[in-house]
Amino acid sequence: MRTHPFKADLLLILVTLLAASSWIFSKEVLVGLPPMLFMGLRFFTAGLLLAAFSIGDLRRFHARDTGRVFLVGAVFAVGITFWVFGLHLGTHMGVGGFLTSMGALLAPLIAIFFGERAGRALWLALPIACAGLAALSLDSHFVFGIGEWSYLASALFFAIFINLSARAAVKTSVIALTAIQLVTVGLLLIPISWFFENWELVNMSGIWGWFAASALLGSAARFLIQTYSFKLAPAGHGALVLTLEPVWVAIFAAIWYGERMEPMQLLGCLLIFIAVLTTRAKSLYAYAQALRQAKQAR
């Protein structure tokens, strides 16, 4: 039963930090591995790790559970395919983070088709968040190329994935669900890589630490926490918190790669923060009231 929205929000903030860090890890690994092969190995490794801790839950899986979870993993695999090509072909990682975050904006809208109601705060926040993303197009240095279109395609599939994963999390063991999802992504991407990519590996010596961080932190830990948070609150509730990811991506890229954040990008960050706070204004006020009452009771 989903009764802990504030706890879900805190966990999703941690998810956005792990996700943003994963952009750095992935960028470093792509120096030595083809994009599809890297993503396939990354998710397959993370899935096997989680599966090792959920053997009992996996044994209790029914055929209908496996089919449902496989569908979630397949949708996620398509989104990841577009994302990694965006990362490989895009010209600005900070911009890519904002474009990918469109998935978090689309998720509450797609949730309507699954029977969720969209509150007034959500409808107020969506235009603000969209304005934050639109601020990118006002930057004279922003160019829409193949990489940017790949990011947008990934956003659509991520929005569908968020909703499917949230519904599966209610009915399934979180760790087993996450393990099967990640293994599914790996099983789909590695054969595709075999047919379409050149496996002539170069510059391998310095990537394995980054690969380990990507698999353990950027995949296993991130998606386990994200799936668990979906068990605590509906997908439409938590999706906008995920729009914080591009803010961290832009900050990390500025620190690690020296990417410059233009004034319009800073404005976009501010608008996204405002959008997230708008959706949480009522719950934050109630939480503050509860703390005040507890303090007075003492």
Q: How is this fold's topology laid out?
A:
Elements: H1 5-29, H2 35-52, H3 55-59, H4 63-89, H5 93-100, H6 102-112, H7 120-134, H8 146-171, H9 174-196, H10 208-232, H11 235-238, H12 245-256, H13 263-297
Kindly name the structural category: mainly alpha
- Extended strand count: 0
Q: What is the chain-wise order of helices and strands?
A: HHHHHHHHHHHHH
**In oligomeric terms, what are we looking at?**
single chain
Distance between the termini: 31 Å
Radius of gyration: 19 Å
Principal-axis shape equals globular
Tell me the helix content.
over 70%
Quick check: average pLDDT? 80
**How large is the count of helical segments?**
13
Low confidence ranges? none
**Which range does the strand content fall in?**
under 5%
| Main β sheet profile | none
Description:
By secondary structure, the protein is mainly α. It is 79% helix and 0% strand. The chain contains 13 helices and no strands. The model has no long low-confidence stretch (mean pLDDT 80).
Concise overview:
With 298 residues, the protein is mainly alpha-helical.
List keywords for this structure.
298 residues, mainly alpha, 13 helices, 79% helix
